[in-house]
Amino acid sequence: MSEVMEFELSKEFLERFNQALEEKDNSFIEQSLAGVNSADITSLLYEFDAEQCKYVFSILPTEVDAQILNDLDQDIRESFLQDFTPEELAAYLEYLDSDDGADILYQMSLKKQEEVIKHMENEEKASYILDLLRYEEDVAGGLMAKELMKADVNWSVDRCIEEIRIQAESVTKIFSVYVVDSEGKLLGWTSLKRLVLEDGKTKVADFYDDNIVSVETYMSEEEVAQIMQKYDLESVPVINARGKLVGRITIDDIVDVIMELAEEERQLMTGISADVEEDDTVWMLSKARLPWLIIGMVGGLIGAQFLSIFDADIALIPALAFFIPLITATGGNVGIQSSSIVVQSLANPNVFAGTMLQRLLKVLFVAVVNGVILALMVFGVVMLVNQNQPLAMTVSIALFSVVLLASFMGTVTPLVLDKFGINPALASGPFITTANDLLGLAVYFSVAHMLYNL
Amino acid sequence: MSEVMEFELSKEFLERFNQALEEKDNSFIEQSLAGVNSADITSLLYEFDAEQCKYVFSILPTEVDAQILNDLDQDIRESFLQDFTPEELAAYLEYLDSDDGADILYQMSLKKQEEVIKHMENEEKASYILDLLRYEEDVAGGLMAKELMKADVNWSVDRCIEEIRIQAESVTKIFSVYVVDSEGKLLGWTSLKRLVLEDGKTKVADFYDDNIVSVETYMSEEEVAQIMQKYDLESVPVINARGKLVGRITIDDIVDVIMELAEEERQLMTGISADVEEDDTVWMLSKARLPWLIIGMVGGLIGAQFLSIFDADIALIPALAFFIPLITATGGNVGIQSSSIVVQSLANPNVFAGTMLQRLLKVLFVAVVNGVILALMVFGVVMLVNQNQPLAMTVSIALFSVVLLASFMGTVTPLVLDKFGINPALASGPFITTANDLLGLAVYFSVAHMLYNL
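Output (structure tokens, whole complex):
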């Protein structure tokens, strides 16, 4: 019954499809894909190379091709589209909403953008797309579609329905009907349901809802996502600086934004510096990972230089060296935990309402509780196993200090990064681990030096 | 113009509102909140305590109270609702969709659930909620709302509009009109737009779309989220095992699911074992962080025991100890990067299409590239700074081996966890760091032992 159930990418089907491609068995390709959701065809095409995909494109209806292009992973689409002529691209754009069309063009050179738009037959859509290309890709203006349903506040319900019949041709999904004044200023909204239920002679002015949440063209995608989530919106109107309705953003685009932001955060947290996936080339994967590894390595080398100051101490009391991994690992773990909690609060600014001082005091309390518990445990174990009181004292005091310091660093670093407009998730990554390693070593050997009177 | 702009939580307003609460100045409270979006009132209420919030609730209309309850953070709501009587709760549920009502009841005891439902006046809604409570909270059945618009395939457009007038009373947002047969089996869908545009005498059977994606009641929220994202759906119908339409899931609920999953992943990755936020108590925050810190500490203590085997070596060549942080940090960083890339592929199963062997081979290549580069750099630096060839050889060979091993561990661990149904993001957390610390130390001192002929 459901399509999800119907179309399974079985190994048998893949082999059969591959065979059809080799034999150019167009009728099999056509029949097996007829009525299949474009998102499923997209998944299928990921299994084949660009040339084979282009062959499938030549068989499928242009409308389906356009949907597949829209579904394709951005990197893959970019390289795939290089083989298409401006005429072909223009034909696809006719079938897409203006925002999806603009998304495809964003990746191209200005010259190619112009050539594609020149070949478009639907002049309204062409002008919509040109309009959208003026905005950055990651602000509300770049996310919005120009296609929307609007009604003049002075119209009657009958007039609305009449106009909607015309507008509806170009709008694939209707969420709200936006109500504007004669100059196009956004006043409020109503629903298609309401229009269906109202009497045909009633004026829109008599029943529309003026309680409306809107965003402005310059707002960042993060802000738009936060607003749509907060108010549970499935679409939001976009207005310009003068309050004129210029577009709308739908929730499916925002879901993509949310996923991208989460992905970006994970990559920052794990020290991957570019947007890579497991199927990228070995060199791309290496390159994305090397910068942070090198930073970590430099940190490690500085640590080695630092430890060499205590050369004689280590030769005298090698047991001091045994606990280096314990100290650095704990510092790293505490730092990452602390920064993670701050990053979370920064992402949901509503929930936490304390001042900076309250925040730091609380972090201090949590650090003291955890630090005391860990220090006592380590003290006990070292006394039991190594039966060496100065060593147990040194390690546990150093551990306690490291927990305190790493908590402080882990809390302050993301806040400072955020102040400077840098993604605070960066602070949960190898950055904080490396810094805390060095800090931990400094504390550890300073404590040792003092306690042992070295 | 836009509400977002209009209602700002300024410090002045907060103080004025606080004063109004103390003076029980009901008219100020009423006027300042009239027409304000419930999500904004919710943000405001986070600044006040439970008793003050309850006072505001007593002044606001029941409908607004119900929306605020729905917006509230789940933990806060749970404790807040303990002061309400079943009668009061029943009154709120009348104003909420069945899924939101069930969400509120999920947190209560069976006995309290029954008492609340007993007091509900709207019997249809009460039976809807009872129905939903049978499902687990995190499967499609627990996410869906019972309110939806459906049309019998044999109806005419006029009949549909007539029925929709009746159904529409209880459905706040219409996305699709689902088409069913006389037994309630889901056949397809149509849109309100289509119904408005079609001639009144046409039968639904003549124009409805049978290409429909649906989910089944038992599907997990992750699966539902993936399907809605893949097909860009703003609502999805839910069917039972017999194909009967039993509810629908809307995208706003799925956005919440996506955010929760991302949050859960971050907490796993950073070693926080419970769902805590910065405004939880010190003890809750400590408790959520301690388990992983203790695991890390135990790892560190095992590391110390392991290093004590090399007691004599370290006393002889203290410089060996200097590079312990470099080795452990690099192992940790490489492990986290590798697991992060696997976790990402597991979340987007479509993109990567290789076998296990291809996957591991690729990981091996990337590790060799990065390992060689890092090892050469470290060799150069140690030769320059320490001018000690055996040491430079030892450190760089160990580093290379650690990069290889940590890549392998970081790739295999999340895959194994996933196989056993454990969230693979766990592998990016302190778990892998601790394991790699020990592994790195073992490799380092084994290499040293061999090269130095100790």
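The first helix of chain A runs from residue 3 to 6.
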